[in-house]
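Limitations

Structures in this collection are predictions, not experimental determinations, and the ligand pose is part of the prediction. Treat each record accordingly. The example that follows, with adenosine-3',5'-cyclic-monophosphate as the small molecule, is included so readers can see exactly what is and is not provided: the inputs are given verbatim, and the output is the predicted complex.
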Amino acid sequence: MDISLLKFIPIFSELSENDFQKIARASSKQLYRKDNMILIEEEIGSTMFIILNGRVKISRISEDGREVILSILSEGDFFGEMSILDGETRSANVVTLEDSEILVIRREDFLQMLRDFPQIAINLLKELAHRLRRSDSQIKSLSLQNATGKVASTLLRIADDSGKIHLGQVEIPKLPPQQDLANMAGTSRETISRVIKSLSEKGYLKKIGSKLIIMDYETFRSDFS
Ligand code: CMP
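Predicted complex:
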C-alpha cells in the first residue's frame, strides 16, 4: 500500500517513515460502495477501520424504531476501535454515505501497533476525549434545548467536524440531507427545514445548494450553545 496515504491520518501523526512502512504492512485498503453496511450493532468485532476518503454514518436504532445518528465521520477518521479495545460487541451501525476507500486493520495487528507506537495510543485517546465531549454536548442539547437550540447545536457539531473557517464565517461544504439532520438533532425533517429557514431570515445562516454558511460563528455559538 502507498504509505503517503498514511501521513495525513491524525492518529498516525508524529510517526516516522519507518513506522509508516510497518503500519502499511499490517493494513489493507478496501473500497466500500455507497450505502454499504460495514458494521452492524451487536455483532462481534475483530477489525478497526480508518477512512482514507469518503464518509460514513454512525447510527443506532431507538426502541421505537427511529434512527439516531451519533456522528458522521470522514477522511482521516477511524471507527470500530471500541469493540477492539473492550472486547464487547459493536456499539453502533456504520453505513457508507458515498463510495469510500477504507483502511482495514485486524484486532491483533492494531493492538500490536498500540504497543509498538505509544504515540498512536496518545492520538487515539485525544480523539476519544473529543468524541466524549461531543456526546456530552449532544446529550445536553437533546435534553435541555428547544427545537431551535437542537438544530443549532447539531449544526455547530457538524461545523466543528467538517467546517472550514474563513474570516469568522464557517462553511459546511456538504450539509447532510434533512432526514439525517433530523436524526442527528432528535427532531423532525419539517422542524429542520423551518429552523434553518428562520435562522437564515435572521441572518445567522446562508444556504447555497448543499453548502451551509454560518455567517458569524462566534455569535452563533454564543447565542445557541
Ligand atoms: P465499535 O463499537 O467497534 O463499532 C461501532 C463504531 O461506531 C464504534 O466502535 C466507534 O468507532 C463508532 N462510534 C460509536 N459511537 C460513536 C460516537 N458517539 N461518535 C463517533 N463514533 C462512534
